[in-house]
Amino acid sequence: MTLTRSLQLTALFLLTACSSVGSALEPAVPKAPAYTLAPNKGLGAGQPDTVCRNVQIKRQTVGVYCRSSSAVLLQELGVSVTPADGSDASSSRSVDFATGMSQYTGTPRKLHGRDGFIANVDCDPGTGEVYRATGTCLAAVSFDDTSSFHYTQLTLRDETTGKQVLSPEVALAIANTLD
Predict the structure, then answer these.
(1) Which of 90, 140, 82, 87 is closest to 115 using CA atoms?
(2) C-alpha of 115 from chain center
(3) CA–CA separation, 7 and 12 (whole Å)
(4) 52-93 tens-digit pLDDT
């Protein structure tokens, strides 16, 4: 083998190795951890076409997921939707998330291929009768082409203990897999 050919093969090998290393250094999108869905009989009870489930990781409830077509439930969840203005093709609907303490504007985001909105909101991860904003949650809502919506609220942080429950990236990955 000639010296030139040997140098060409070495250069090709190094370029291939460097391009593999470069892709390994890029941040990976986290995959949703293993989770289960358990019945939530209280939320959405009596609403037509509604299924609500608790999201659990290692038997710990970290949030809730609902699929429904009930405008009443959407309002009870604190989600208000301002429809798109039909006169302007560039405008789109907007979504606000209201909690017992504040109101948050949703950021547009594709969720499982659907038009959706997300926001970090104050939340009450407890089950008491009085709302206490002792946590931070990711709230997400997406809409089917029909009148159905998918709502997810996952606990990011328990502010009373200072414990991180889910990272925002992992919570978003879970919300993106729920269908």
Answers:
(1) 140
(2) 12
(3) 9
(4) 999 999 999 999 999 999 999 999 999 999 876 655 444 478
